[in-house]
Known about the structure:
Blueprint: E1 12-16, E2 19-24, E3 42-45, E4 47-52, H1 68-82, H2 85-101, E5 104-111, H3 117-128, E6 133-138, H4 145-148, H5 152-161, E7 168-173, H6 185-194, E8 198-202, H7 210-218, E9 226-230, H8 236-245, E10 248-251, H9 253-259, H10 266-269, E11 276-278, H11 290-311, H12 323-337, E12 355-358, H13 372-379, E13 385-390, E14 393-397, E15 400-401, H14 406-424, H15 426-433, H16 455-460
Parallel strand pairs: 4-5, 5-6, 6-7, 7-8, 8-9, 9-10, 10-11
Antiparallel strand pairs: 1-2, 3-12, 12-13, 13-14, 14-15
Helix pairs in contact: 2-3, 2-14, 3-5, 7-8, 11-12, 12-13, 14-15
The chain binds zinc ion (ZN).
Zinc ion (ZN) binds at residues 51, 53, 110, 201, 229, 281.
Amino acid sequence: xxxxxxxxxxxxxxxxxxxxxxxxxxxxxxxxxxxxxxxxxxxxxxxxxxxxxxxxxxxxxxxxxxxxxxxxxxxxxxxxxxxxxxxxxxxxxxxxxxxxxxxxxxxxxxxxxxxxxxxxxxxxxxxxxxxxxxxxxxxxxxxxxxxxxxxxxxxxxxxxxxxxxxxxxxxxxxxxxxxxxxxxxxxxxxxxxxxxxxxxxxxxxxxxxxxxxxxxxxxxxxxxxxxxxxxxxxxxxxxxxxxxxxxxxxxxxxxxxxxxxxxxxxxxxxxxxxxxxxxxxxxxxxxxxxxxxxxxxxxxxxxxxxxxxxxxxxxxxxxxxxxxxxxxxxxxxxxxxxxxxxxxxxxxxxxxxxxxxxxxxxxxxxxxxxxxxxxxxxxxxxxxxxxxxxxxxxxxxxxxxxxxxxxxxxxxxxxxxxxxxxxxxxxxxxxxxxxxxxxxxxxxxxxxxxxxxxxxxxxxxxxx
Length: 464
Ligand SMILES: [Zn+2]
């Protein structure tokens, strides 16, 4: 996974301390080295997720049938206000463990539930209790960005908790509504003063638009440290502004496909040569698993390419987006988005030893292993993650997490789910999880044979 996307067969990777010491065939392991047999597997860089609302993980799967509208109601107006610091801790803890288990060694925690600094302390406590690499992207949806980002207690928090530790980066996370008064400008200035990047949900249908991009551009706040999450309903002009100022787009295809931010944009942004990374957004709907991200991103991109061609009566004979591209976005792309090209995202000498071994001898899907990029993108899944190293430390081995207290994470997340359920009341809780299904009807069909569609057949059809 270097710049030339080389695939090396029968190759050893030697890590010493925090770094990769050597990559090559028949390496001599130093005395006392731990040898992990990767034969029959794929050794790849740790994957990097550039946008995940880790705090929401204690409500895993709750919003499976939501649109963005329901999400906004529940997180911004109802449940989100109820989260206590210990609930933020529960979500972050579980999300951090979930990431390691799936070979995601770095996660940007898009943490917009930090109503108070105590919530932020809890978020960091959880991240620092798990041996993964994280970037806390500080946010607070309950206050205007200009307010929380300039508050003395926020500055104090940053001074105390963000110490330049290589394992915990820092950014600001807020959205730009498009209000012509541009009330978010002081928050951008705060980020500039702190010398940190901004990550923002951009091009989200009904929420943020080309106007948001224009304001940022004219304010001089679009920089290579800016990450545009989704960027799914933007004009070519906005993409050109992003491309010209060097920022990255974090594509969360599973999210865009079902929540409604806009069509997953890789098919459009490829033409603008904008750096791309991948993200899973939230485990309220989806799993924190970049195999899914790679797979759905390939699918959405290719589906759109075929669809656009068919509209013109044409046929796509060669796929433009390849498996190797999405594997690159999940690794080197994430490193680039986070400003870590120099030490993350690939297995090269001198880089940090964030390493994933995909190998599952018990699985019929593990062989034949002909096309490693294709195998990672379309065949592998989190259960095939055999070993994970972060910063040279083994955190998963032989399919089992090492030194992780899963029982404690379970207790915390169950306590949070129980608390939220009782705070909302059972009726609201179930209504939230089961939004109304819009009315629809089956079209009249002149070809229907009523004899053929017997009662028995009918009863097996789902009601729509
Ligand atoms: Zn998001």
